[in-house]
Amino acid sequence: MPHDDVHTRPEDRATMAKEEVHRLMYRLADACRQRGLDALQLAPTRVRVSPPDAAHPEMTEIITLKADEEGRLFFHWSWDEKICPADELEWAAHVIKNVVAPEAMP
Questions:
Q1: Which of 10, 22, 57, 73 is within CB 3.0–4.6 Å of 86 for a Cys-Cys bond?
Q2: Which residues contact 51 (CB under 8 A, 6 or more apart)?
Q3: Using an 8 Å Cβ cutoff, are 65 and 25 in contact?
Q4: pTM assigned to the model
């Protein structure tokens, strides 16, 4: 029997989706750190991003990953506005840096 998504049990697909979400958020935190921000994954769907060295703690943001009505994953700001699709991770990190630490922008 071929192994593809058609024959995968629903609970296995849910586990794969959770692992994908966790991996995406880990990668987002890493991309933010590479841009000089402090980033910590708080939960599988949440990352706290702050300016470097705790400068301007009021600029700290909690970024979440949520699916839209069609099941597509998007990064969201703390006020629930979409940042961009999850497959645009590098763009998301760029935009987050621009908001969280605008003075650090080149």
A1: 73
A2: 37, 38, 57, 59, 60, 100, 101, 104
A3: yes
A4: 0.78
